[in-house]
């Protein structure tokens, strides 16, 4: 190991990143043997399948600019890095990575596993690999074996595109960042009081009028069907499934403003650009309400290859309990009619969740025991639970009182607090088998550009990803904070402006 004697601090010759310095922590790691070095002769060898080749090309796109090497993707001969599909104990998303002097092989049963393995490989290389200009290297991958499968099948991030609209390119940028940490669901909050963001042919004013503003009164915007399909396509190329949400029966002012007939009194309210919640409701007693919901769900389901459709159901403070239950009893079958599985915020458990439904819990420590018990009862009766506790993983909560963006109604959420809990036993009475996973929502009342998204998401998102992916046995703040610190230079290389929490020992420089 060479030592540089000219500077004040000795600089060690590059040694490869240890195999366990990865976020989310891999399920098992066994270091052995010599590292592999990527050189100008390195090829990416892929099985002769379209999907494997696509993952290979994705990896090559990461490696080429910073290494300056050609890195051809080939089906035969010349190896170095190999991506192969094979039967084995990998599940739908797991992989195995073997590294030694002769090369690196990633093996998985499905392309999603290869893709996640590629994300691990990126983190084993120096952070400079993420830069878009040629860097000096050397490009070493430590020797040994990683075997890795996720703890949960639902590892989500939600983006509220209603309070502030985000363009297709902005959504794609976030998708790329989510993919780094093996997040596999992109939940889009497509409608709320302040804006309707998806074109619906049978009710065109929803988008053209209901989408014409946002919080603070800006111009808003909406996705055409082609835009939405492009988001779905791009997300799926990064192995994320889009879960679209139309929030009902509350949070519907944009729809009510667009069509007078949806209001009980037949009068359309004005568009809304403030940040209050809980003042709007679809008219539960009118039949046209269900024609409307049927049309919207039908068109959205047709655009969505994923399994789920989120119907909101939170903060319906202007809907009586009786009406809420009636509404959900009529709307859930419409989701099934179009072949989708219902997801709702956990208030849905106060109605009659349909068979196979998933409830997204967004309570906090202070949520009443009754409300928690209601969620637990639904879970015992077969409702799946996705955990998004607001005082842990709401990415719009401020880190500290000084955080310039975000809200604080659920408290201040520093990095340690967002990481240090266990989804497996978080809610009393919820069987661990009912827990489908975790999801980090980002509400955007105060968030209006990509830099804002990134400052609130990073570093907390990485911790959520680890909670969703890594076995409970790997969970340890002391170890995590060091692995997290190593992500800092990567985010710098990628141009992600993150919050430099004093709880994390970021490397100097
Ligand atoms: C609660 S969480 C809401 C949203 C707000 C958010 C702000 C949930 C299901 N509803 O309408 O945007 O708080 O943090």
From TrEMBL:
Residue ranges of every copy of the Beta-hexosaminidase bacterial type N-terminal domain listed in the record: 21-148
Keywords: Glycosidase, Hydrolase
Domain of life: Bacteria
Record-level Gene Ontology MF annotations: beta-N-acetylhexosaminidase activity
Pfam families: Glyco_hydro_20, Glyco_hydro_20b
Species per Swiss-Prot/TrEMBL record: Streptomyces cyaneochromogenes
Protein's name according to its UniProt entry: beta-N-acetylhexosaminidase
Reactions it catalyzes: Hydrolysis of terminal non-reducing N-acetyl-D-hexosamine residues in N-acetyl-beta-D-hexosaminides
Enzyme active site: 315 (proton donor)
